[in-house]
Amino acid sequence: MQLVTTAALFSALLVHTSTAADDTAFVTAAPHAGSATADLYPPSGTSVDSALFPPEAEVGFPGPTPTGVQPAAIQTAAAYPYNRGPSNQFPLVAPQPHGQDATSDTFDITKYWGNLSPWYSLSSADYGLPDASPLAPEGCSVTQVHLLYRHGARYPTSGAAPAQFAAKIANATKEGLQVRGDLAFLSDWTYKLGGELLTPFGRSQEFLLGIQHRQLYGHLLNNFTEAGTIPVFRTESQDRMVKTTQNFAAGFFGVPEFLDQVSIEILVETPGVNNSGAPYEICNNSNVNSRGGIGNTMASKFAKNVFNATIDRLNSQVSGVKFTTTDVLAMLQLCSYETNALGYSAFCGLFSQEDFLNYEYFYDLSFYYNNGPGSPVSAAQGKGYLQEFVARFTGEYPEAWSALNQTFDNSSTYFPLNQSIYADATHEVVVLDTLTAFNLTALFSGPPLSVTGNRRENSFVASKLVPFATHFTVQVLECSAYQPTKQIRFLVNDAVIPIADSYAGCPADPNGLCSFDNVVSVLKDRIDEIDFDYDCFADYTADEGVDYNGRAPRS
Hints:
Blueprint: H1 2-24, E1 27-28, H2 56-59, H3 73-76, E2 140-150, H4 161-175, E3 178-179, H5 200-217, H6 221-227, E4 232-236, H7 239-253, H8 258-261, E5 263-267, H9 294-306, H10 308-315, E6 318-319, H11 325-342, H12 353-370, H13 378-394, H14 406-409, E7 421-426, H15 428-437, H16 462-465, E8 471-479, E9 486-492, E10 495-497, E11 514-515, H17 516-529, H18 532-537
């Protein structure tokens, strides 16, 4: 018996030694490595046969269906249902960074993916309101809610960096690509991502966002019942935008109830057509690198050398190709995209905690200077939604001084002014443009971001403000303890944002509240300040590293 045990141990030792040796030996990549693959569902020519599988209405026998009252958790709950912890990314699997052992503190890599992060609840304390909650303050009731939200997790846009990286691997495979160690998985890796569409996880984000808002603000539907009408929710014509609104509506109203309990307005998104949800299609300077693309330039400068150690480590594990900064960024994006689309990515384990911190700051620079205060066109691009929100506040149709589409915005059918619930879906760049147009400076508190590195002196973090399913909420409230009683406040991903420092006439308030009439007056002035035509079409020079408050320089 002892001999058998010894032999077994010796055999196990040989296997372990062999495995360790294989880990250092190069493996030749399979011929299909780097190639694009896809699955097709449903099969061609198939559909549900309603004659064989009749719907609920034909089957009958639904059982009792009494309704209860509409939920109003924003006013009745003892605590707010924050979206924190593993729940905000279920069912995704995100490993610990490279070099992090089991005894290390947990580092959530998903919070360092910039605009590719899943949204999670922010803390009001991070913006200077430690005692504020999204719940209606004592003595207040929410009478109206305005929501601007981003689509959920999606595949990469067409021709983006991940697909280019895959093509590089595929080309190298033809010449004899070899990999080992951390990169061994590349020997059999194929590019499995689609383009532009929502992922299953992205659909779930929007469905849950809809459920959340029904739980919080369902009582506001009673206003529609009294008026004998249904809400109009708006979106853009891109497939992921339509599906975003449909999934949000399905969560809010239920399936199949959403099909006839809300009107979904789809605005065309294409170059040359006015659309507040896609202002870059008519703002020429947004597509000029030296104006609307300053963030791209600064982010590239920052990334040029910060990944050198990782590049050297990865290049030591590959033969037949040399990786560059561009490739590292593409692999980091593959970590994000594959996790969001497929549930897990082997690319994530290639990168250290420092790499993910630098990856986040790459996006911080990009968005701060492309769509935040460091951009000369961001306020102009966000002006459309600013005007539309004010129009809904005041009950007056907006003027055509921006990217908004006046053909639709001058119609009670397509742009109703008397709803108690508004919900508009858009892209993350437009959400950030809008926050800049609203002059919510607490989100960007501190000196302009430095291209030399993250000094952690500014409150802006891209993954906090522009993640998948990010949302900007405006609450209109009646507060008996305040004078005047009609109050208003702003929230971003559940954090209440203070406005006392940027809205004249708004005193500091622990709940972030200010007089409704005063805020409307301030926002009307802000509309007048933003010169859409100049910022979007004038020939001016904008410098890097400047806080322009989102507006073009005049000299």
